[in-house]
Design a protein that fits this description.
The chain is built from 7 helices and 14 strands. Strand 13 and strand 14 form a beta hairpin. The termini are far apart.
Length: about 200
Amino acid sequence: MKIKCIPVGMIQENCYVVVNTATKEALIVDPGDWAEQISALLIEEEVTPVAILLTHGHFDHIGAVQSLREEYHIPVYADEKEEAVLSNTRLSMASFTLSADTYLQDGQELVLAGFAIKVIETPGHTPGGCCYYFPDHKVLFSGDTLFLESVGRTDFPGGSMSALIRAIKDKIFCLPDDVVVYPGHMEETSIGHEKQYNVFVA
């Protein structure tokens, strides 16, 4: 596995390109903007994208989805409880609506680009926010659920701090301490570090 991060858009959201180095297939996680730059990275890495994974439906995480879906003819995945956010501009804060090709359930297991992936619903930042866990590589893409020594905002429509903290404690902090966390903003961290130093989840 190789993970490339591109901070995109005016909020500098972390878009990730997750590469299977054996097959040269890739997954795009949260392409928030700047589709041309993301495409340029795919060309530079000489990889073929096979899917887009969305952790949630806020504008800064979905801005380049439609362009990349059309360019590469690839499906978009999101949690089933996030359909309402993607289809409502007030909730997504975007100027457009969006739909996923496949809506996922909590605990669902996927195999995409040769990677085993587990879907972990983590509502709180949005009602259908989720994380993607790659157990074979001990990697978690946390979107805006968990950050380095912080957590996602819950003051947007549909947000809930109690739900967010409960999800982190019950579903995320049970993962191994050495799992590397790749968040939607800021730099990477680990489960062990957050269990020790994240004051929001005391």
